[in-house]
Amino acid sequence: SHVDFSVNRGEIHALMGENGAGKSTLMKILFGIEQPDEGTIELDGKTVKIASSDDALRLGIGMVHQHFKLVPSLTVAENIVLGKEPKKNGFLDRKKAVEITRALSERFRFDVDPTAAVSDLSVGKKQKVEILKALYREVKLLILDEPFVGLDPKATFLLKKIMHECVSDGGAIFFSTHVLDVAEKLCNKIAIIKNGKLVASGN
For residue 189, which phi and psi values (nearest 5 degrees)? Predict the structure, then answer.
């Protein structure tokens, strides 16, 4: 209700609040999964209509959900290019998909095997695959819903490093968390939501 804030390029912005405060709902609105009753969303100074996740992706907005949306029976590479597949003779070019995945993985220093089945991956590696999937679509704004839940200390450290790398070339990250320590150390700005309302926002 009447949530008003901005996320700038090169910025990591946290959305904080208790469970049930409305964090995930707000993020789903920005990614087109839920529709707002009123108000506007602006991107690069222009009002945009985000009626679906396809609209969001076309606008350069990607989202990694708290509960991963990967297809367990497919490989890492197949998941990453899903919906934007390189084609050869009308079919998926698996060799090209592997090359794309390996190049992305090396660029962001992810330790991910493109040929591995997603069903065999740890939680931390599944999250990396989700992030690579968004980066493959060249998103300008990456939304992460509770990205640190279930990660061990090493995976948490690596994710923080990845987030900084993602914004170093002018992108932006908007992520939700209820862990104050993480937000304080990682973010440029924090917005706090309670019972669906924005109660504080700033650096």
Answer: -140, 155
Of 146, 150, 102, whose CA–CA distance to 124 is shortest?
150
> Cβ–Cβ contacts within 10 Å for residue 142, how many?
24
Question: SS3 for 15?
Answer: strand
Of 24, 134, 44, the closest CA to residue 15 belongs to: 24
Predicted TM-score (pTM) of this structure: 0.84
**Distance (Å, rounded) from C-alpha 97 to C-alpha 86?**
7
Per-residue model confidence as pLDDT tens digits over 69-94: 889 999 999 999 988 899 998 898 99
Q: Report the C-alpha gap between 165 and 75 in whole angstroms.
A: 25
d(CA 27, CA 61): 11
Q: Name the one residue in this structure whose structure tokens are 């509960």.
A: 67
- What pLDDT sits at residue 197? 94
Phi, psi of 97 (to 5 degrees): -60, -40
d(CA 145, CA 30): 12
Which residues have CB under 8 Å from 184's CB, separation 6+? 190
Residues 18-73 have pLDDT tens digits of 888 999 999 999 999 999 999 999 999 999 999 999 999 999 999 988 777 889 99
